[in-house]
Amino acid sequence: MSKEENPELQAQPERTPEAPVGVPFADFDIPQELLSGLHDSGYERCTLIQEKAIPLGLSGQDVAGEAQTGTGKTAAFLVPIFAHLARKKDRRPGEGPSVLIISPTRELAMQILQDAKDIGRHMDLKMLAVFGGVDYRKQAEALKDGVDLVAATPGRLIDYMKQRIFDPRGVKYLVIDEADRLFDMGFVDDLRWVLRRLPRYQERQSMLFSATLGWKVSEITYEFMNLPTRVSVIPDTKTVAQVTQEMYHCSATEKLNLLLGLLKKEDWSRVMIFTNTKRVVDMLTFKLQAHGLPAEGISGDLTQPKRMKLMEQFKKGDLKILVATNVAARGLHIDDVSHVINFDVPADPEDYVHRIGRTARAGAVGKAITLCCDEYATHLPYVEEYLDAKIPVVFADEDMFLPDNTPAYRRPYRPRRDERGGGGGRGGGGGGGRGRPRPGDKPASRGRSRSRRPR
Ligand code: AMP
Predict the structure, then answer these.
(1) In which element (H, E) is residue 176 found?
(2) Protein residue with least CA distance to atom 5, ligand 1
(3) CA–centroid distance, residue 255 to ligand 1 (Å)
(4) Are residues 49 and 72 in contact, defined by beta-carbon separation less than 8 angstroms?
(5) Quick check: CB of 43 below 6 Å from ligand 1?
(6) 43, 181, 330, 361: which to mutate for ligand 1, most atoms within 8 A of CB?
(7) For residue 25, which atom of ligand 1 is closest to its CA?
(8) For residues 118, 70, 60 and 87, what is the CA-based torsion angle, rounded to 10 degrees?
(9) Neighbouring-strand partners of residue 272
(10) Cα–chain center distance at 237
(11) Nearest-CA neighbor of 226 among 25, 418, 57?
(12) Which of 110, 101, 164 is nearest to 132 (CA)?
C-alpha cells in the first residue's frame, strides 16, 4: 500500500477555526468577484495569519508561513492567488495549470479544493484535486481538459508528470502546504523532484506553510523560493475553555460497563469515542452495536471510500456514534460533537487536546469524558502536565456500570492469501467459520466472556 493510500498515514489534523477578528477582507485591494466569494463563504474578517500573509501575497512576494491547521492558512494563500488570477486571466488554451498546491494527504488536498471552490465560486476557474488511491483516469481526463488550479499529493502528481498528463511549465503560483508533514511522511525526495521541474523560482510566486519552520523546511525555502518573507502565528491549541472535562478512574475490565452507563446517563446527540488501538475500535463497535447503539468504527484498516462514507453519515447525523483511533480520526473535521469519550488515555498529550477539541466547536458547549484505567494511567501525568491543569475526577456510582451480556468479541479471522476465494476457507463457507462476529450471534460460553459483572 502506498503512502497515499494508507489512511493511517493520511491522518489529517483537526481544523478548529480560529476567531477571525482581524482586518476586513473588504479593506484589501482585491477584485469584487473574490470579495463576494469570501462573503458568501462566511469570511468577513481576517484571521491573524491572513492579516499577515495576504498583503505580502498580494504584493507578489514569496511567503513562508508558520501556521497550523485551524489558523485560516488556506485562505491566506488562496486569496492572493485568486486576486492575481482574477486580474491576469492569462491561461492560454493547452497550457498546464497555473496554480499548484502540494499537500501531504488526500484529505488536505480535498479540503483545499473545497475552500478554493467556496472562495472562488464567482470566478471562472477550473479546479481539481489530484491524489492517489482512486480515480486515476478521471483525474487524468480532467487534467487533459485543462484546469487552472490543482491541489495534489506528491505521488499521484509525479505519476501524471511522468506520463506528461500534468505539464508543470505553466505553474505561476506554487503552494507547499503542511511542509513539515510532507517531510514526516517521507515525501522530501518527491517534493524536490517536483520542484526541480517547475519554472524557476524567479518566474513564479511561491508560498510555503508549515506548523513549524525548522531547518529542514527552511532549507527547501532557501533552495526553491525567492527570498520568502517569514510570517508566524502560533495558536494556543491548549485553549479548550468551553469543554467540560471529566475523568473516571476504573479498571480496564470495567471500562465497557462504564461506557454503557455513560451512554445511558449522558444527554448526548453525537459522540466520538477514541481508543488507542484498532483492536479496541473493533471490539467497542461490535459491543455497542450489540447493545443496539448506533455506532460504527473507523480504523486504518478501512478502505478510503468506506471511511469517507462513514464520515459523511456521521456529519449528516445519520450515524450517532463514531469509534476511532487517533490516527484514523485526525482527518475528520466534524462540528457539533456533543461528547468526546476517551475510552483510553492517549499516549501523546497533544492527541488529548486534539480529541477533545472536536467538541465545543463554534461556541457550543461540549463534554469530554476520559476513562482512566490501570493500563494507560501512566499517560495521565503527561497529559495533565501538558494541559497545565488537573482533569476533574468524577466518581461513578455502582449503577453507572451496566452489565454486558452480549456475545464476547472475537478478533476477525483473516484468511491467508492461499485460502481466499472459492469458498474453501476455514469454516467451509457455511457461515460457521471464525469470521467477524455479529451482534446477533449466540452468546459465547461463559468461560470465554471477558466482560465482568458490574460491581
Ligand atoms: P484552515 O486553517 O485554512 O484549515 O481553516 C480553518 C477553518 O476556518 C476552515 O473551516 C475555514 O473555512 C475557516 N476560516 C478560515 N479563515 C476564515 C475567516 N477569515 N473567516 C471565517 N472562517 C474562516
Answers:
(1) strand 173-176
(2) 72
(3) 37
(4) yes
(5) yes
(6) 43
(7) 19
(8) 10
(9) 322, 340
(10) 16
(11) 57
(12) 110
CA–centroid distance, residue 305 to ligand 1 (Å): 26
Among 54, 84, 53, which Cα is nearest to 172's?
Answer: 84
d(CA 26, CA 322): 40
Task: Write out the H or E segment, with its range, that includes residue 444.
Answer: none
Q: Whose CA is nearest to atom 13 of ligand 1?
A: 17
Helix axes 215-224, 188-196, angle to 10 degrees: 10
Contacts of 339 (CB under 8 A, 6+ apart): 266, 268, 270, 271, 272, 359, 366, 367, 368, 369
With beta carbons less than 8 A apart as the criterion, state whether 101 and 150 touch: yes
Q: What is the pLDDT of residue 162?
A: 97
Cα–Cα distance measured from residue 64 to residue 367, given in angstroms and rounded to the nearest whole number? 37
Residue 337 host element (H or E): none
User: How many Cα atoms are found within 13 Å in the side-chain-facing hemisphere of 80?
Assistant: 26
Which residue has a Cα nearest atom 16 of ligand 1?
72
pLDDT 10s digits, 325-377: 876 655 555 666 889 999 999 988 878 887 887 775 544 567 899 999 999 99
pLDDT tens track for 58-76: 999 999 998 888 789 999 9
47 CB within 6 A, ligand 1: yes
DSSP string, 369-423: EEEE-TTTGGGHHHHHHHHTSPPPB-PPPGGGS----SPPP-PPP---GGG-STT
What cell was used for 270? 453525537
The phi-psi region of residue 143 (left if phi > 0; otherwise alpha if psi is between -120 and 50; otherwise beta) is alpha
